[in-house]
Amino acid sequence: MKNSGRIDMKFLAGIGISLFFLVLLFRKIDFAQLLSTLKSLDWRYLLAAIFITFVSYSLRAVRWHYLVLPLKRAAPRNLLAATIICYMANNLLPARLGEFIRAYLLAEKENLEASSVFATLVLDRLFDGFSVLIILLVTFFTVKLPPGMENVQRGLVTGGYVTFALYVTVIIFLVFLKRRTATTLSFTSKLLRPFPAKVSSKVIPVLGSFISGIRLTSNPKELFALVFSSALIWSTAVWPVDLLLKAFRIDLPLAASMFILVFLVFAVMVPASPGYIGTYHAACMYGLMAFNVPKELALSVAIVIHSINFFPVIIIGFLFLWKDGISFSSLGKYKSA
In the chain, what are the domain boundaries? Predict the structure, then answer.
């Protein structure tokens, strides 16, 4: 019950943050102009963007196949279903529970240890992190913001360096944890001494169990497939943004779409309501306004980009749940799993 209270508080805080950004977004908006802009959308680009978005989700299942391969050759259908249900759950449930649901669904389907499957998702996120860092670096050298936006560009550079430092730290820690497990766990235990003893008693066993589940293929072809699929995943993440800019007849270079995508990636890290409502829209809108795109037009693009990442995946996610005979309410059991 106590844990439930904590989750409720986080949920309420997320709702509050989303409401704050929604008020920020819609104040001083010309709603007539907003509706007019939305009506001007070219549906051909929209349909193409939805299709490519699902290609991107499918590619995530392909990459996951190679991460799970050291454990077992999982069925492609199970990998895809768990991936889609994960993103559906992230859109509808608090605290990014989709990641836990994804791990436990595949573990149940393939008779695997849930901790080992979850370890593959940590590697999955690390591949994503470095892919985003590459996009950040490319954006720094290619994007040209209008005069007066120098502070925005400097802020991105600073954020990029901080993120890079964090990812390098995580990688170093994981390498030492894998190769020098006992020494690293002992060092971590010392770092946790200022905290209550129960924290260390929980964290250390979890880290030990977790690291034993991390396995990365040593096959060069499979490693190449991991890197190549990551490149395809993020290429198909940038492409829909570019298509939707074209759908609204916004003429910006591809680097601008990459710039917007980086904003969106940082937005989903901010605590918010399920579906990243408000924070996602604000990141997209203010990213576009950095290129002097009018506020109503920028908000229209934000609404549509969010919609193609929200509604279609929910529909397909529920189809997978229905086919597998899983009720949506039963997904809540993974909160404490």
Answer: 13-18+40-335
